[in-house]
Amino acid sequence: MRTHSPDERLRRASSFDEDAERYDRARPTYPAELFSRLWQLAQLGDSPDVAEIGCGTGQASLSLAERGARLICVELGANMAAVARRNLASYPSARVVVSKFEDWDAGGETVDLVFAAASWHWIQPDARYEKAASTLRSGGHMAVVHSEHVYPEGFDPLYLSIQDVYGEVTGSRKHVAVQEMPKFGELDSLDLEHIAEMERTGGFQPPIVERFLWHFDRTADGYVDLLGTYSDHWALEPDKRARLFEGIHRVIAESPTGSIRKHYLTSLRLARRR
């Protein structure tokens, strides 16, 4: 996995805040199966205390709140936090604070679950699990959720044409072909990196790793909107980004359905605090 310097990591993490409404509109939520399994494995009960790290505009927060969590969301971006507060307005037990997780002062509070979805890679390595462990009650759990775009059997062939656009505009393209999905219990290199990092803290038991394959559909407008929320696309030169988005939009809009299906493989890494 590509790594960034601390300054570049913060710069990219902050980029999402520039258009929080687009992020809220474009980013998908997560499958209900993920949260059902989380509740079961961590034995969270009816009203656990949960700290969500990097909540964005609430893509996972609503699912946590709907299941009864007394939720505190720690979000770096003030604009993102404002939208998250709006989305969580129906849940008085949910609150949102603006802070880097590394700087957040929990005021001595501890929780049953520290949860991070699509955000943990933005937190400073070699400090994040130690901070999480200090936030958890004895026997509490840390859950890290990470999603990768994958190409299972039957993936949308439009991605082949889309990679042609990347090649023309950026000079590079990914190889797109059917991928074999991991077997149950199989660990990948990112799992092993996280396990090693947790072991260095001495604060966690070996994690449980489970995966969920799911998909969603987007129109040409919706897919380009989604791409605009990705930090690597945001980092492109504006003219190059515009040409890339125009070409991808054309591929999808001119397809028979006018839409594209995207598959995600979502990993849940769940570790119990010692």
Protein described:
The protein is an alpha/beta fold. It has one domain: Vaccinia Virus protein VP39 (Rossmann fold, 3-Layer(aba) Sandwich). Helix content is 39%, strand content 23%. It contains eleven helices and seven strands. Helix 2 packs across helix 9 and helix 9 packs antiparallel against helix 11. The longest helix has 16 residues.
Give me some keywords for this one.
globular; Rossmann fold; 274 residues; seven-stranded mixed sheet
In the CATH scheme, what's the topology name? Answer: Rossmann fold
Q: Which runs of at least 5 residues are low in confidence (pLDDT < 50)?
A: none
Distance N to C terminus:
28 Å
Q: Would you count the extended β strands for me?
A: 7
Average pLDDT rating: 93
CATH class bucket: Alpha Beta
Structural class: alpha/beta
- Just name the CATH architecture: 3-Layer(aba) Sandwich
Determine the strand fraction and express it as a percent band: 15-25%
Q: Major sheet: size, sense and barrel closure?
A: 7 strands, mixed
Rg over C-alpha atoms, rounded to the nearest angstrom: 19 Å
Q: Count every helix, treating DSSP H or I runs of 4 or more residues as helices.
A: 11
CATH superfamily: Vaccinia Virus protein VP39
H and E string: HHHEHEHEEHEHHEHHHE
Determine the fraction of residues in helical runs and give it as a percent range.
25-40%
User: What is the count of distinct domains?
Assistant: 1
Shape: globular
